[in-house]
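in:
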């Protein structure tokens, strides 16, 4: 987990219950173990404390939407945790309040605490990226935490753009009933991670809509989502297409590959993918890996085996 040291890392995915909290627990355990083995190497990265939080609700005993059992988040002494005041009343951990943030979520006010005695805790994060950005800035600049993990909620991949210089881990739920789609999703997110930033030398104001006016420029700047319908309208003379960030690309893996044969895609805001976590629910690794093939480097993939409940 050295890739996570000294970084702000978002753990996200495209589906509910894809194993984000399971990976968070694994990452926390390995980071703590690394610190115990190599205190000198890890001291700078964890000097302000190992910090983690969520955007949404994570770590609760039962899923609030579907009602089935979920993995818990275990806090250890020294950890920095952001949650809401109501969640702190239910935790068995002992803690010290560091900061109460001056805004509210639907479940209460966010609070930063330092854990003094271990225990299970429910992590409830801010409602939006603006609040998340303010919390991250405070934890990093005022507390000095350099290794920060953010557990994502369903369909909240846009959180990656809430703070500059952040990286992310993408989790994919792999079930026998959707093997092909899971493999396609892994290939798609890796392909998206390879897209570069736009060049500042060619700036335009075009948008690919029904009445677009192209001015002889070979670069098209698209406001909003890049869908298949919008992609099909882009004239052949357009060489470069720029979207705001990777979350605005609504193309399947095959559509993305075909699109890039005709145009070169760029982002206005880049992002860094460090790991893809394939959470295997009811299938063996050897059965699934051939579907991914060589299109995603092995060093980019971690496999978790998730027991069904």
């Amino acid at each position: 987990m050295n890739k996570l040291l000294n970084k702000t890392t978002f753990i996200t995915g495209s589906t509910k219950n894809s194993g984000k909290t399971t990976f968070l627990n694994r990452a926390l355990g390995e980071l703590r173990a690394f610190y115990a083995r190599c205190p000198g190497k890890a001291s700078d990265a964890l000097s302000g404390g190992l910090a983690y939080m969520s955007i949404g609700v994570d770590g609760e005993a039962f899923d609030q939407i579907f009602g089935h059992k979920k993995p818990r988040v275990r806090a250890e002494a020294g950890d920095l945790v952001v949650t809401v005041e109501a969640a702190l009343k239910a935790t068995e951990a002992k803690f010290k309040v560091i900061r109460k943030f001056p805004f509210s979520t639907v479940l209460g006010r966010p609070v930063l605490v330092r854990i003094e005695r271990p225990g299970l805790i429910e992590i409830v994060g801010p409602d939006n990226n603006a609040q998340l950005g303010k919390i991250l800035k405070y934890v990093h600049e005022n507390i000095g935490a350099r290794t920060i993990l953010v557990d994502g909620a369903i369909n909240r991949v846009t959180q990656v753009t809430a703070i500059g210089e952040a990286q992310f881990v993408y989790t994919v739920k792999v079930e026998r009933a959707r093997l092909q789609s899971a493999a396609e999703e892994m290939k798609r997110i890796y392909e998206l991670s390879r897209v570069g930033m736009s060049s500042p030398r060619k700036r335009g104001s075009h948008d690919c809509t029904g009445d677009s006016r192209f001015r002889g420029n070979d670069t098209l700047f698209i406001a909003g989502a890049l869908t298949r319908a919008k992609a099909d309208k882009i004239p052949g003379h357009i060489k470069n297409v720029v979207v705001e960030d990777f979350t605005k690309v609504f193309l399947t893996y095959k559509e993305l590959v075909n699109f890039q044969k005709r145009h070169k895609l760029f982002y206005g805001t880049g992002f860094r993918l460090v790991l893809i976590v394939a959470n295997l629910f009811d299938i063996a690794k050897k059965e699934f890996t051939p579907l991914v093939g060589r299109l995603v480097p092995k060093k980019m993939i971690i496999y978790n085996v998730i027991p069904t409940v």
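note: The longest helix spans residues 20-37.
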